[in-house]
Design brief:
alpha+beta; Aminopeptidase; 8 helices; 12 strands; 32% strand
Length: 308
């Protein structure tokens, strides 16, 4: 599977710098002028999103240089596996990377769904996927908005934005689960598992996690992290409003709160991801607030993947 001049090794957090370099090269190849990817963002991926991560790197044996990184993230609660691959432009490892991803995923569970991600402009890898029977499942955009002199919005009577304390994590969890209950791919996650996931995350900023209360009851949350700190940006990792309170402007209020927070600490921009198929109107809201597409990522699926 691996050409003789290459070797396959386990990737760890110690590889974050080289991984960030390859991620940057990929972004800049498909989007000339793209900002470099920082080590914090690479560390988040190598740390594992949910339960764990199986990370590999393909090495050029002669130079010792990493040519490709592959990450495979199982989600045991949702019986799903997420795979992503980044390679140095020109490495021509699309098929090799895909085969390694499939082998690792098959070793985790052949019963799980498999979602394989790629840059939307990486036609070589997309061709490798379609050659193996994968089809487009979902498209996501990374959006970016510039930060200027944003002020904290004035809260109407009965509303309170409160930093999330340890005692409020269960409220946060319940708000999160309700907010996303109708989103594509959502399945409930038990509290203890969810709590462990957020506590092991890279880039935690305890000053950038809020619950929005209305008359003492939680109606929404917004969580930001420092995974974009290397490029002077803030990052909205999650934002949601409970189903019964959607359409009342609470999402916009919380985003304006995040703008004000990052303006107060001198960040230059704010980024987030959005599912372009989200029917809640999120993309329209983000565009209204000045967010513009920075890059695009897609998930592909083949229900018969375990037998490939």
């Amino acid at each position: 599977m691996i050409p003789a001049e290459l070797s396959l090794e386990v990737a760890t957090l110690e590889d974050a710098k080289e991984f960030a370099e390859i991620m940057s090269l990929v972004d800049q190849f498909f989007t000339p002028g793209a900002e470099p990817v920082g080590e914090a963002e690479a560390e988040e991926i190598l740390n594992g999103y949910i339960d764990s991560v199986e990370a590999r790197k393909i090495i050029d044996s002669e130079s010792g240089q990493a040519l490709c990184f592959i990450t495979v993230h199982p989600d045991n609660s949702r019986k799903r596996i997420y795979c992503d691959t980044w390679q140095r432009p020109g490495a021509n490892l699309e098929s090799t990377g895909l085969e390694i991803s499939l082998e690792i995923a098959q070793g985790i569970s052949r019963e799980f769904d498999l979602w394989i991600g790629t840059n939307s402009k990486d036609l070589g890898y997309i061709q490798a996927l379609t050659n193996r029977g994968f089809s487009l499942l979902r498209t996501y955009h990374v959006l970016k908005a510039e930060i200027s002199k944003h002020r904290y919005p004035q809260l109407e009577s009965g509303l309170e934005m409160r930093l999330i304390s340890e005692d409020e994590k269960k409220i946060w969890w319940a708000t999160h689960q309700d907010s996303f209950s109708k989103h594509f791919g959502f399945l409930p996650r038990p509290f203890e598992e969810w709590k462990a996931m957020i506590e092991k995350a890279v880039g935690i900023d305890l000053n950038a996690r809020w619950i929005l209360y209305r008359e003492g009851s939680a109606v929404g949350f917004i969580e930001c992290t420092d995974i974009k700190i290397d490029i002077g940006a803030g990052y909205v990792d999650g934002i949601g409003v409970i189903q019964s309170q959607q359409g009342k402007g609470y999402g916009e209020l919380m985003l304006r709160w995040a703008f004000a927070y990052y303006a107060s600490i001198g960040r230059k921009s704010l980024e987030l991801n959005v599912d372009t198929g989200n029917e809640s109107g999120a993309l329209r809201l983000y565009e209204k607030l000045g967010f513009k597409e920075k890059s695009s990522w897609q998930h592909f699926e083949n229900k018969a993947w375990a037998n490939l």
